[in-house]
Every structure is written in structure tokens, then in C-alpha cells.
Amino acid sequence: MTAEAQPKPARVVVADDQTVVREGIVMLLGLLPGIEVVGAAGDGEQAVELVAELAPDVVLMDLRMPRCDGVEATRRIRDEYPGTQVVVLTTYADDDSLFPALKAGARGYLTKDAGGDEIVRAVHSVLSGDAGLSPSIQRRLLERLSGPEQPQPLFASVEPPDGLTAREVEVLALIAEGFSNQEIARALHVSTATVKTHINNLFAKTGLKDRAQAVRYAYAKGLVRPPTGGIT
């Protein structure tokens, strides 16, 4: 009798800009069954290059990295190399990190307190066509889906000016609708500290000094549509 053929291990690239963390993840994965680490990247740009070179099954992707962050790297990998799946492995579980990563094409999302068994399950889940989400992330998605409907700002279809990000435009639109920082935080399911960071960033980019100027700027740039009847 011949021994039953063992399934091929999943070929994995690890992307993390912190050397100690990256080497620790590679070492951990080397001890786990069904995983073969074929490369390690120090930023998103290098991760994309390794995918092009090595055609791994899965990339374990950090989010906050120089040159090219994890969300953009995920988007490029899924667009250019659809045979490679992405599982995010990050410290962050807030909405500003989670939802852009999933929209970019990540099939799994784990925080760095995940154990080795959880990482293995996530890798093999995404390879079998399922989602590889940690229990805490699953709960977060359910809370988002079952919570009150998020108000929709009256965006105009224009390219954000002055280097503003989509989230900064979203915050600006809610300011124009009269939302306080606390109300913006509830609407976007983020902390008030995160909202303040977005506001500080958009003020710095645009040269605005207060919320009144921000409202005028939003309408002048066509970032939000005036309410019916115009602005008085």
C-alpha cells in the first residue's frame, strides 16, 4: 500500500515593516503544519514585487507600512495577481482599517494577537473560498450590519482636491451637515480621536482654520451638494 499523498502546503509571503515582528511571524509560521513561507517583505511595494516573482497562494499583510501601505498593496495584488489571496494581519481593528482593507480585496482579517492555529485556519479558509476572519472581526462586521443605518452625506462626484482622502472628504461632508465630532464618530463607527485626526489633517491640507471655513470650502469645491433650495 502507498501512503496517502499529503496536500501541498500553502505558500505564504509575509509583509510587515517591523523587522522583529516580521521575523517573528516567519519563525512562527515555519513551525505550523500546512504552511510554507516563501518570502518576506518590508513594505507594500516589496510585497507586490514578491507576489509577481513568487506567485504565492497567500500574503499575510500588515496595513501601516511605508512606500505603499497594506490597503493599496492588497488592491494591486488582487487586481494584477488574482491567484494570490490576502489575509490582513495587523494591530488595528477599527473601521478605518478594516473596511478599506476588505473593499480592496482582502479575504481575511486577523489582529496580531491571533494564535498560530487561527492563522493557519484563516490561510486555508481563504484558499478554499471562504473568509478568514477572527471572531472579533466577525462581531465587528455583524455590529456594523445590524446597527442603525449610517447617514449618507450628499457627496458630489468630483475628485477630492488638495490631496484629501476619501475618508477626509466624508468627514468634511458631515461637518457641512452640522455634525459634531461625537456625531461624526458615531456615524462612521470610529473614535472621536480618529475624527479629530482626520479634521486636523484636512485642515492642514486645505489651510482651513475653523468649521465655518470648512463648510464654505466643501460647497465651493463641490464636495457636497447644497440642500434643496440652495444655501441661505
Q: What would you say this structure looks like, in words?
A:
- The protein is an alpha/beta fold and 232 residues long.
- Helices cover 48% and strands 12% of the residues.
- The protein has 10 helices and 6 strands.
Notable traits:
six-stranded parallel beta sheet, alpha/beta
**Helix and strand composition category:** alpha/beta
Mean pLDDT: 83
* Widest sheet: strand ordering: 2-1-3-4-5-6
Q: What profile does the largest beta sheet have?
A: 6 strands, parallel
> Cα-atom Rg, whole angstroms?
21 Å
Distance between the termini: 86 Å
Strand tally is: 6
- Please, how many helices? 10
The 3D shape can be described as elongated
Residue share in helices? Answer: 40-55%
